[in-house]
Specification:
One of its GO terms (biological process) is bacterial-type flagellum-dependent swarming motility. InterPro entries: Falgellar_hook_FlgE_sf, Flag_bb_rod_N, Flagellar_basal_body_rod_CS, Flagellar_FlgE/F/G, Flg_bb/hook_C_dom, FlgE/F/G-like, FlgE_D2, LlgE_F_G-like_D1. This is Flagellar hook protein FlgE. It is found in: Bacterial flagellum basal body. This protein has helices at about 1-25, 425-455; strands at about 35-40, 60-65, 75, 80-85, 90-95, 100-105, 110, 115-120, 125-130, 145, 160-165, 190-200, 205-215, 225-230, 235, 265-270, 275-280, 285-290, 305-310, 330-335, 345-350, 355-360, 365-370, 370-375, 380-385, 390, 400, 410-415, 415. By secondary structure, it is α+β, with helices and mostly antiparallel strands. Among the domains are: about 1-70 and about 420-455, no CATH class; about 75-155 and about 345-415, no CATH class. The strands form 7 sheets. Strands 5, 6, 9, 10, 21, 22, 23, 24, 25, 26 and 27 form an 11-stranded antiparallel β-sheet that branches. Strands 12, 13, 14, 15, 16 and 17 form a 6-stranded antiparallel β-sheet that branches. The chain has a 4-stranded mixed β-sheet with strand order 18-19-11-20, with no helix packed on it. A hairpin with a 4-residue loop joins strand 22 and strand 23. It is rod-shaped and about 145 Å long. Mean pLDDT is about 85; it is low at about 240-260.
Amino acid sequence: MSFNVALSGLNAAQKDLDVTSNNIANVNTTGFKESRAEFVDVYAASLLSSSKTKVGDGVLTAEVAQQFSQGSIKFTNNSLDLAITGNGFFATVPELNSLETSYTRAGQFKLNQDNFIVNSQGGHLLGFPVNADGTSASVSLSTAEPIRIPTASGAPQKSSEVDIRMNLPAGDSFISSAPGNFDPEDPLTFNHSTSVTIFDSLGDSHIMTYYFIKDDPSVNPNEWMLFASVDGKPIDLEDPAGGGTNPVGGNISGPLSTGGGLTGARLVFDSSGDFQSQIPTAANGGIITSDFSNHLPNGADTSQTIQIDFNLDPLGPNPNEPTQFASNFEVTSLQQDGLAVGRLTGIDIGTDGLVRATYSNGTSEPLSRIAMVNFANEQGLKQVGNTAWKESITSGEALAGEGGSGTFGTINSSALEQSNVNLTSELIDLISAQRNFQANSRALEVDNQLNQTILQIR
């Protein structure tokens, strides 16, 4: 019996050595979780045996239990390197249409040839679909799908509105030849000008310029005339009255140097410099250009118009309105809502797992939200290698959720979770297991010597 007891001790010591050696071997494996050999004694007694004198029957390996404590975080320069701080696992599938889900804490992800986010084994990272505002459309593992980074450029958006804030100098003199001889190429025919880059429906850029001309103070005090051009070519401002005349008297359309006529607009201030009205006034409160029929030869939408919004507030002075003070000409805001064609410039991943693509035209687009998975019993997961686990009966069903919500940890981009192996502790355990092995070997040797002695009795 003592021979079997010593043999079981050798087997247990060998198992302890194996587990410790495996932990040490994976000390630099990203996302690795150390294991611990757990042993129980063996005790068997019959109904009539005396428990007071019964000796145990050895030792047995009960379980090699994984320890899912947090590993330290190592920061990198790759935005697709992901680390989980707290509970949870990443979910991956080996192929696009596969339902064979594996779970991992190793976040060494990259793009494959089809721009899907994958790990070094080719497993596709799963994510939840998201709405345009970045909220999750569904938080269910059954709806999660492999995350793909788009290769297409960001779609252009044609300009439809320009917002202007400025100060027009109250002391400017009236140009007697204006507006009849207004010429956008002759700075002597207007007082001031400013420009903004706008975009057509194809994302092509154009320079839209606004020209301000002080009206005759003896006729229309505190009033300015406004004209516009696109790429240096004058464009009419929409005139609800028709005929190219100002609705409140006074023709503000004058013959250009080309011999044509141009319809402009009028900005009216009061004696304190407050913006009072704009003429003509569209139904939505802005001054609108005519269509771009003669300004877009590149095949873009020629029905495009642009509303020039001066933020008129009929209730009184407003900081967003233009002013007419005794100060220099100053443009404090000049913004438009169009977008050029954008190329993909980067991928941002938030702590909640939201994957957002950013484009060179200043826009960003939410793509997906990285699926997080947790289990009632992490130690019940079945190891499958490559720092991955699979669901088992003892682990319970996979519970999906978003990073940072409930019991789920947060996701750190440009970071990796290192192995949770403590090398110092493992070396000490290695020495302890070695001593245990030597002691059981000695017990086995003594048993063998006793057996030899008994066999030699005559």
